[in-house]
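Entry 12.
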Amino acid sequence: MDLFGKIIDNGFWQEEPNHRFLEIKELFAVYSEILKYPPVRWVIDSNRRLNHSTVGRGVFKLIRHVLMHFPFFEKWDDVWIKKSLVNLYSTRHQFIDRFLSTNEGKGQLEYRFWEPRKRKMTHIAITFPKDYTKGEKVFLRDLLPEEDGVKFSAIFMWNILKVQIQKIKDTEDSIE
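Predicted 3D structure (tokens):
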């Protein structure tokens, strides 16, 4: 919750890109670990909600996999993947490969989410690659700009987790 609060705060975006990237990766790492905890996994699986589209979940999962499985980048704008790298050590196509291949060339997909602290609706656009299956590099920044991608992911995580926790005590009431 602390990482979420820090990342959603406007001041976060004034920090150095490589420092932001470490915090972003930490947020994804903590969320991934929370999902491994059996009681949380059971509650999430037994109470699946259909409020997020399949593509939105896929984009979130893509970002999570890229950040967790390709740790050699130092900032969001430098992160890239390509088909040969994604499938390097596997005989079957990995999630990243399946998702990008399925959505290749679909153009832009727009999402919106409410930012309580700013008291406004934020709109983001996800741009799917056109030449992923041809072996071209796909940059994360081209899929989603850093701030949009991180806020989208952080809010996605928060919305999933907050319904699993019976009571969150937030003195500022600014996260929900």
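Annotation: The radius of gyration is 16 Å. The longest strand covers residues 108-115.
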